[in-house]
Design brief:
By secondary structure, the chain is an alpha+beta fold. Helix content is 35%, strand content 17%. The protein folds into four domains: 65 residues, no CATH class; 98 residues, 2-Layer Sandwich (Uridine Diphospho-n-acetylenolpyruvylglucosamine Reductase, domain 2); 119 residues, Uridine Diphospho-n-acetylenolpyruvylglucosamine Reductase, domain 3, CATH 3.30.465; 116 residues, Alpha-Beta Plaits (2-Layer Sandwich). Helix 1 crosses helix 2, helix 11 crosses helix 13 and helix 12 crosses helix 14. The longest helix has 20 residues. Bound molecules: flavin-adenine dinucleotide (FAD) and 2-acetamido-2-deoxy-beta-D-glucopyranose (3 copies). Flavin-adenine dinucleotide (FAD) binds next to strand 4, helix 8 and strand 11.
Length: 443
């Protein structure tokens, strides 16, 4: 997706209906009380046998493929050739209810008394529908599980596998294209309670985290520890590591730091049948084994659920700054951007917003009292040493000026940096807030 696309709106977009298609009983407790950060002690190392297990089980979580992989009855095969798409074959609502019951029993047997599975209708709705999504298929999950450990995730997956219940991972819920919707019902696995730093390896510049730690929270904790390190991938403000791996996300820092796949060292993953695997070992020099990170990063939870991730960290630059400059047309802004890349100026970020988006920011008031010029605008971040930042800013100023850029403005302190940059980060919410009845925001 391109978050920085010009604003487009679909007037009169279709209204959606959603139904709680599983009238289950409300659990006695859906408490979100304690948070036990058990990390996957039961993990097995990656082996050839696990490769087979992966191949055998991927189809179950993957929507379309599942029916082919698992159902080879003649009727199905015929439908391959007569042009009718074979739909996925999943459990009935009744079987899904049985699966929920069985999961509860098994998890209880582990000695944990809390009921980690919710069938609260608000909960189901919040996990199957989102206002910011470009698509919201009908259907909601029949239950939302809140596992506390890799072991619990494994039980959930194993039981779902047995009953053919779809599993949908859920971390920050900020993805924009219906990634976490539940068209076939199934169980949404929300990692809300698995949000801890498991281990911080300062000297190796990496960190082991659970999937539901937000990138902003991770950075706040790294800063509190005075680590001098940070995690540079910055998609939606509420995004969390599990979902960021799921979408192979980018962010405004991508021009300098790349995307999610560049920062994952290794993963603990629960496969569709409950098998727990580790993708590789931590040493970066290691060249052993398949690139399993590359399979799971960007697979949107269809191949397995990530329950732990080891991530690289970057050095906090000595100096940062933010600059903003506006242009008469998008074309001028684009040629300035190209000029800057071709000059090899190492900007930390570079983002564009068009005149409609700038207007929306003004109307929305998220950055009031500041009023922005309603013209195509480039946003830059600079990072480096004091002298390099100063030097790079003046070169960018030169290039934007040569492309009809005007009102070049750079932040003098941290507060101003934050204010200037917040316009870019607020734009989606401002657009959503200003929608008229029946309008939808396209990105
Ligand atoms: C204001 C705003 C700005 C944004 N800017 C950008 C941007 O610049 N670049 C960009 O790429 N995106 C951007 N996004 C989109 C979004 O933030 C990213 O897609 C982000 O990676 C989603 O993370 P999440 O934790 O919210 O994931 P979720 O929405 O919870 O899940 C995303 C996907 O990952 C799967 N998943 C979740 N947890 C796990 C897990 N533990 N294991 C396996 N699969 C899992 C889900 O099933 C789903 O398919 C933006 C969103 C907003 C609202
Ligand atoms: C990464 O590999 C190391 C071993 O090198 C292991 O201790 C660690 O648990 C792995 N990380 C994850 C998230 O599985
Ligand atoms: C993730 O996205 C990047 C581009 O942003 C792409 O180069 C890479 O191949 C993707 N990674 C995976 C594992 O698909
Ligand atoms: C950015 O600044 C540094 C330090 O002054 C300099 O070495 C580098 O060449 C600059 N980059 C560009 C392309 O201007």
């Amino acid at each position: 997706m391109s978050a920085n696309n010009a604003t487009r709106r679909l007037i009169g977009g279709c209204r959606r209906t959603f139904s709680t298609n599983a009238p289950l009983r409300r659990p006695s407790t859906t408490g979100r009380a304690t948070n036990t950060a058990n990390s996957g002690q039961s993990s097995t190392r990656w082996t050839g046998r696990s490769v087979l297990a992966l191949t055998a089980s991927t189809g179950v979580l993957g929507f379309g493929l599942a029916a082919f992989a698992l159902d080879s009855s003649p009727k199905r095969t015929a439908s391959l050739f007569d042009g009718r798409a074979p739909g996925p074959q999943y459990a009935s609502v009744k079987d899904m209810e049985s699966a929920v019951k069985e999961m509860r029993k098994e998890i209880k047997a582990l000695g944990e008394n809390e009921d980690i599975i919710s069938i609260d209708s608000d909960d189901l709705h919040a996990h199957g529908y989102s206002e910011w999504s470009t698509v919201n298929p009908d259907g909601l999950p029949v239950a939302v599980a809140y596992p506390r450990s890799t072991e619990q995730v494994s039980i959930i997956a194993r039981v779902c596998h047995k009953y053919r219940v779809p599993i949908i991972g859920y971390s920050g819920g900020s993805s924009l294209e219906g990634h976490f919707s539940a068209p076939y019902g199934g169980i949404s696995v929300d990692f809300a309670y698995m949000d801890k730093i498991v281990q911080f390896n300062k000297d190796d510049m990496d960190v082991v985290v659970q999937p539901s730690i937000g990138w902003q929270d991770l950075n706040a904790q790294l800063s509190q520890m005075d680590s001098g390190l940070f995690f540079p991938i910055d998609p939606g403000p509420s995004a969390k590591i599990g979902g960021m791996i799921g979408t192979n996300c980018s962010g405004t820092n991508a021009v300098r730091y790349g995307t999610m796949k560049d920062w994952v060292i290794n993963l603990t993953v629960v496969l569709a049948d409950g098998t727990v695997i580790k993708t590789r070992r931590r040493p970066r020099k290691s060249s052993a084994g398949y690139n399993l990170n590359g399979i799971f990063v960007g697979s949107e939870g269809t191949l397995g659920l990530v329950t732990e991730a080891t991530l690289k960290l970057a050095i906090v630059p000595e100096e940062t700054s933010v600059a903003v400059v506006s242009f008469p047309t998008i074309r001028d802004a684009a040629s300035a951007a190209a000029g800057i890349m071709q000059a090899g100026i190492p900007v930390a970020s570079m983002e564009v917003m068009d005149e409609v988006q700038m207007k929306v920011i003004n109307l929305g008031g998220a950055t009031a009292p500041r009023v922005w010029k309603e013209a195509p605008t480039l946003f830059f971040k600079f990072a480096g040493t004091k002298t390099s930042v100063k030097d790079n800013i003046s070169r960018v100023k030169g290039i934007t000026g040569a492309n009809k850029g005007s009102n070049f403005e750079f932040a003098r302190d941290e507060r101003e940096q934050h204010l200037l940059w917040s316009a870019r980060k607020e734009v989606l919410w401002s657009m959503l807030a200003l929608r008229k009845e029946g309008e939808e925001v396209y990105r």
